[in-house]
Each structure stands twice: as structure tokens, then as C-alpha cells.
Fold this sequence. Notes:
Elements: E1 2-6, H1 14-22, H2 33-46, E2 53-61, E3 64-76, E4 79-84, E5 97-98, H3 103-122, E6 126-133, H4 137-149, E7 152-160, E8 163-165, H5 170-175, H6 179-193, E9 199-203, H7 210-221, H8 225-230, H9 233-248, E10 252-259, E11 262-272, E12 275-283, H10 292-306, E13 311-313, H11 320-324, E14 331-338
Parallel strand pairs: 4-6, 12-13
Antiparallel strand pairs: 1-2, 2-3, 3-4, 3-5, 6-14, 7-14, 8-13, 9-10, 10-11, 11-12
Amino acid sequence: xxxxxxxxxxxxxxxxxxSLLAKGITHVPFLRYEYLRTWWQTRGGGEWPQNxxxxxxxxxxxxxxxxxxxxxISEREEKQTLLLLGSVEISDYxxxxxxxxxxxxxTDGLIAYIKTVLTPQYGIERIxxxxxxxxxxxxxxxxxxxxxxxxxxxxEPLARSPYIPLSGDYEEYLAGLDKKQRHEMRRKVRRMLELxxxxxxxxxxxxxxxxxxxxxxxxxxxYDENKRRFLTEPMKEQMRLSMRDxxxxxxxxxxxxxxxxxxxxxxxxxxxxxxxxxxNSGIDPQFFEHSxxxxxxxxxxxxxxxxxRFEFDFMRGSEDYKYKFGAMDRNVMRVSIxxxx
Length: 341
């Protein structure tokens, strides 16, 4: 393999990038070319400093792009650290982009290239790759590559990431829930339907109203004090750009539940690779007594089943409500490699 690195994200790479992602070991929305380019423009909504340095490491086999390590360098715990582009806060799943058949050779070559070329040039002291799914082949491949070169390798669970597997039958999904939870879901939906002011829900589909709906979602997020602090101006811009990009690629599921003429609950999801990826939410506290978040979630799960999505992924976070809706656990991992050993 021929390795090289770039210090920008050239538009000429987009087609190859997304093609590699589609057949790679981890096919997630946070590794798309457009998403990561936007993430870098805002440094993750202000999570990282402007002096962070971009490094897109590529590998080709006779001209064929077979692997990408989308990375950047920044100081972390007083060490120059190589991280995955998208780290850490707002990109729930990250990984190397590599075809399965090349995974071992690409990873061996990547660690050797970092050691011999990038470390002398950029003074890299550590590698920390966050949010790698616990089932990714890259975990064992990275371990093996580090052992071969004598580097200290550790991996540890970083967060739980619950998900609901869907079979294509909504009644079957309901039957798998705890009886009390099933009854509670039906009761809350029924009560919502009986409200005298009426209720409804919808998924945003009109490009003419998109910007307004995006701003409405951010307004509803900010009802929560923690989310209000999270929504700095750079973060708002990051989220606006991500939502517009996702809408343009037919993968945005921005949904609202209304009570009367007012928005009571909202969910920002991605509809990608036949899965629903639950990204964030907002609830107007004046409607708490009607459980609008729960009711909207019921509608969205039912929609996912009826539209042949095979998974409803709540992504990072172990909030109790996810398990009440039947979620199963998996983890995202943090890989740490000490290059000074």
C-alpha cells in the first residue's frame, strides 16, 4: 500500500470517500465526507481550537483507494495527540474507513506510517481514537499493529450506545416489551389523541420551511438547561450546517409533535443506511404532563418499522427511557496508543 497524507479535505476526494464508506467496516453518518468537512470547518462546533492541524491519511493499492484515517492533531492532556476527525462530543460513532479485506494490512501500514513519517514531522506523542463501535474489526487490527511495533495499546468502553433491533412487525416489537411499558405507551398515545385542542406529528419535508424548522428545533433544545449551555453560537452553526447537509442528501428526519398550534416535542434523527439514528431532542416544558416526547418516540419507532428500517439506534447515552422502549446495549470504545514506548 502507498500511504500519504493531506492537510485539507479536497472536494476531489468526495466520491471515492463516500464509496469507500459504503463498503467499509463501519458505515455510519458521522464518517460521511460532507459531515466531516463541516465538522472541521467549525472544529466540532468549537470543541477544538482553531490551531488544530488536519491530517487525512490515505492508502492506495495500485491507485485504488482502500483506506482513509481521517485525523487531526491537537493538544490533549498536554500531549500532541492524533485524534479521529469528528471527536468527541457530537459524533457518536467514528472509525477508520477501510474495506474489510484490507483492514489488517491498512492498519499495520497506518501505524508504521504514523511512526516513521508523521511522528517525526508533527511531534505526535499519542494516538487517541474515540467512539469506535465495540464490534469494529479495527480494534483488534490496531491492537495487533501496535504489538508488532512495541507500542502500548489500551482500549476501554467510553459510553453505552443502546439500540432497538427491528423485525419489520410493529406488533412483534410491542410484544417484546415489558407489559407495563406496553400499556403505558398505549395509554399516553390515547390520552394525546383525546386532547380537546388536538394533536399531530410530522417529519419536515419542505425545503422552503427547513431553515425555520431548524431554528425551531434549536429553540426547543434550549428549554433544557444543559442543552442551552451546550448550544453556543459555534455549536448552533455546526448543527444548522449538519441538518441542512443531511436534508440535502435525503437523510434528515426532523420530526415535531404539535398540541393545538404549538410544538410540544421534537426529535432530530438521521435516516441513513436503513437505520434511524436518534441524535437529539427538545420538549416544551409546558406540555410535560402530556408526555409529548414519549408519544413522538412511539410514532417514530412505528414509522421505522413500517418503512423497513431494521434498527432504531439511540446512540450514546444510557438514559433510562431508552431501555423502557426495548433498547439493547452496546458500547463505543476509546483506543489509546502511546507512541513514546
